Input
Amino acid sequence: MAGREQITIGLSAAPRPGAVDRGADGTRTQLFTEILTAGPLSRTQLAQRSGLSQSTVTKVVNPMIEAGFVTEAGEQIRGLGRPQKLLDVAAGRHTAIGVKIGPGAVTGVLTDLRAQVLERRTRLLTAGHDPSAALSAAAAVVWDLLSGHAGARDRLVGVGVGLGGHVEAGAGRVVRSGVLGWSGVEVAAPLAAATGVPTVVGNDVDALAVAERWFGAGRGVDGFALVTVGPGIGCGLFLGGGLVTGADGLAGELGHIPVQAGGATCTCGNRGCLETLASDDAVLRHAAEAGGPAYPGIVAVIAAARNGEPAAVAAFEAMGEALGRGLATLCNLVNPRRIVLAGERASAFDLFGPACNRAWREHAFSSAAENCELIVDETDDSLWARGAACLVIRDAVGAGRA
Ligand SMILES: [Zn+2]
Output
């Protein structure tokens, strides 16, 4: 877990501890987010929405117009007053690249400033995912994206990299990634050197939480928790207007909450974490324990469960039950108004959803689940890379770097 709404990642400053910072970077990012999610807006509307004075809004917004992040788009005439110019995101003036590094592949997208995908490239990591192979593939993806789009490099604000694990965003390095088997790996500096493009790195779930906040199911709400299901269990907390990261960027490690004494060994090295009961590997293990055949992978278990094969059905029910207890724990700790469920396995919600809902409601304290809305986001897999693009867009806007 790393990153937050007002975070500065990588290039511009050392990481700041704590959840929310309202410095100059934060104000720029806050206003940019308002314009992005609710624009076009007049300066008066922007002041009202942000709670800032109109003079502060003008002082912050004007350099953003000069930098080409924001543009004046049309006028608003209200009553007898002077017409007001409307501010909107200058989507096409800059581009960004988002790269998701996973154990099997590196996926990259070239986007505009609204993180709309212009190009997409993938390199498979067939020969393994050690740091040198994965970073070489990431650099190649960046080159592929730039070579396919004339003029993109001149307008590029940078590259954002998202991956699972504990990321020290300010230092541009991975402290530890269970899913990749990395520890103490420099990411931002070697990639920037290989591509000649400013690069930031962040936790992939936090990046996705920013994307959900800007464009997805977290849009327009004060707070939500993002929970991802698939190869691992991830969680990003967007509360009180900012992404919550904790003292060392480790807040929201829902997947590593210990739930079963003496349980299976987790990618983190401990035993009995929620991830060992609710990840894809857990579903495969549950299916075998329920007497099923040797399914070759998670896709086969999904197909079997939809065909009503009892071991596969039971495996998803066990996974749903564990996930539901995890959601109850989450609700009991932070009481979110909304949970967004996303990730590779969200589209199998028909299989694990009923058991998940049952366990969630049963174990949540008082009204913590009752008053919480669950939204399932089944968006395609370019979403992770798009989230990584949001990291660098936010960083560039926050730092005033064009
Ligand atoms: Zn664990």
